[in-house]
Amino acid sequence: MSIVVNTKIKRSSPEIVKEFRSLLEEYHSIVPGVSDCMNRLNAMSADIQPLFPKIRLVGVALTVKTGTSDLAPVIRALQLIQPGDIIVVDTHNSNNTAFWGEIVAIEARRNGAVGIILDSAVRDVVELREMKFPVLSRGIAPNVASTIGFGYINVPVQCGGAAVNPGDIVIIDDNGVVVVPCDEAKDVLEKTKKFLANEGKVIERVNAGESLYNILGLDKLEAATIDHTKLYDK
Length: 234
Prior knowledge:
Blueprint: E1 2-5, H1 14-26, H2 31-36, E2 49-50, E3 57-66, H3 72-77, E4 85-90, H4 102-110, E5 115-118, E6 121-122, H5 125-131, E7 135-137, E8 139-140, E9 150-153, E10 157-159, E11 162-164, E12 169-173, E13 176-180, H6 185-207, H7 212-215, H8 218-224
Parallel strand pairs: 1-9, 3-4, 4-5, 5-7, 6-8
Antiparallel strand pairs: 2-7, 3-9, 3-12, 10-11, 12-13
Helix pairs in contact: 1-6
């Protein structure tokens, strides 16, 4: 058995995590704004779907990289959970194999995890929905992965097309998932606060009757555009 555990990771500041949580409580949606503030990057793909509606979370990534049919690293990771962690599992897109179910969710919750994101399938879906344990995955399948005993924990992974490092901040709302790199978290937080405040002002102006086309300055851009057809009228 060979599961490599990286014990030397940098975790995002609890204060910054708390501030992102406060934003999620204040606004209906923050995932699009956070992604916009990172040049529209670091959002997971649309095939990562919630198992039930209204999953809204902010947590710190505990990452797992498995083989395409090896559940053992996921089970090992349960022992490494810190309160507030969101487990992020890279199974190399094993969407026809379940890497999560009722029993692992019971232990994960007991140890302080607040959710899990997998690029695989899950099973025991009725039980998971009744538990209200937040799960986002690529689908549902009855057959579970084997327990061979190889993999990596707290290493860089890919999930839903996004790069995730252990200790990064993971944010989930009804729009999907976005990952904030640990080293950029403070800067992204401040940019997101400004973005959401400015967005609120734009909404007020549109509600007051202004045109979004004009608010964004597209009218001035149109006026400044050269009509190249006139170059040939001479």
